[in-house]
Amino acid sequence: MENGHKEDGDMEHPVKSSAHKVNPGKPASLTWQRKLNTKANTLTRFNLKLREIKHLISIIDPFSKRLVTSYHGVPLGGIGGGSIGRSYRGEFQRYQLFPRICEDSPVLANQFSVFVSRPNGKKSSTVLCPRNPEVLKGSASSGIGSWDWNLDGESCTYHALYPRAWTVYEGEPDPEISIISSQISPFIPHNYKESSFPVSVFKFTLSNSGKTSADITLLFTWANSVGGTSEFSGHHYNSKMKTKDGVHGVLLHHKTANGHPPVTFAIAAEETGDVHISECPCFLISGNSLGVTAKEMWQEIKQVS
Q1: Where is this region: Disordered (predicted)?
Q2: Close Cβ partners of 303 (under 8 Å, ≥ 6 residues apart)
Q3: CA-CA 20 to 30 A from 97: which of 17, 128, 174, 267?
């Protein structure tokens, strides 16, 4: 077997299937777990020996200053195709998209958010991540600091079992709504080709225990960035896309600086009879440039939700 493809002379082996059905929207029974408001432990720094540095230098720059944190969860991406880390709090961090380059800090505009509306006019909304103190640093009133960072995290639990992860949001932002976000990246036995795809899939399962119906809007925001300050290097652009099977999305074309090749992110979701998809290909995270601001985008969703 080579990269998941049968070669001449390979013996056929019977495939064993299990009668046990797996619910992808429910956390596995044995997982590593953290409450979203769990405080990170302070990690002890250590020095590398010269021999260890020689081994690492072909993989990563051991001399660069690193952001040390214990918030790490299951990363996004397959094997050998680069990865984007995810904290158990919900942040996207630790961007390793190019050899030897690792951008540890989270890009705080990259978030899932939820808006809930009841027939009686009651509305609630929040970013699905506890507030990070860095959100307000250098963020004008029109930036992402204007969003509703209302998640407490005490009743929310992160579950990890590589290559999958789940986050269960109980009663936030609506006390009668339960949200389960499941994340999976390709990790397929005996199939290196498709296991190396730089992709990840998120699935949301929502339950309403209230006596009235609820309209729920899920928002996914993503900066045109490969980590660090790359979003400010210029000449990036975004465009809408749509396929024949009802998949809507946005392509984020990143003109990477410092000699690295260009990158295109693709964000997409499938529209169904019960799910309506809309796109906003561009808004301003910060600064005073002309265009739709992060605050205006957020307020518009709150009004129509």
Answers
A1: 1-28
A2: none
A3: 128
